[in-house]
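Appendix B. Chain record.
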Amino acid sequence: MNRSNRRQLVAGILDRLIEFSKWPTGLVCLLMLPTTVWASFLLILKIVRPTPEFIAFSLGVVTYVVVARWLERIRIFGTFFSTLEHELTHGLVATLTFHRVLSIRSTWRSGGHITIEGQGNWWITLSPYFLPTVSLLLLPMIVISPWPVRWGVLGLQGVSWAYHVWSTIRETHRHQSDIKKVGWLFAFIFLPTANLVTMMGVLAFASDGIERCRDFLVDCLPWFLLTAAGH
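Structure tokens predicted for this chain:
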């Protein structure tokens, strides 16, 4: 068995496991929603203070709202970039689940499309609707950058965070082909919790580091999951 066949075999096994976990994951997300909302509220109360990290992040958010929203009217900054980022997120998760990306297409007018080897799975399909790809890629830079540079990285983090919030709101609707593919009911129960966890997790990390992010994630878990985990 050559490398390509082994990769396809692993991808097929992962697809079946991920598909099997679909509705259990949806149920867990539904049960986590109240605690995740509460944890998000508590997080905001803890981090909204005039620290250099929060100020830099907030300036990035404001910059996106004021400047980047205007730039979106220009096709290369708006439709083309957002479509490309959307398809690259599909591609990233496809690669992580051992699918070979065959092609990615992004256009100004007719949207985008990605072709992968194999059947795929719902992680790949829904990934752009809950994974803030650019924000996640910036997290290591926050850790390794010296302070003058880190301030700028935190500003970029704020821009990317605000961009993901806006693009997710704009792209998530029942007529979206990806939503139809996984089923609107599953998307409805999975995406709210998934988005709160990822977006507020990024906010916690950017504001106060990995410990704050860890505490937030623990606070998101319902009591019965904490008990099962031994907390």
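Further analysis of this model is presented in Appendix C.
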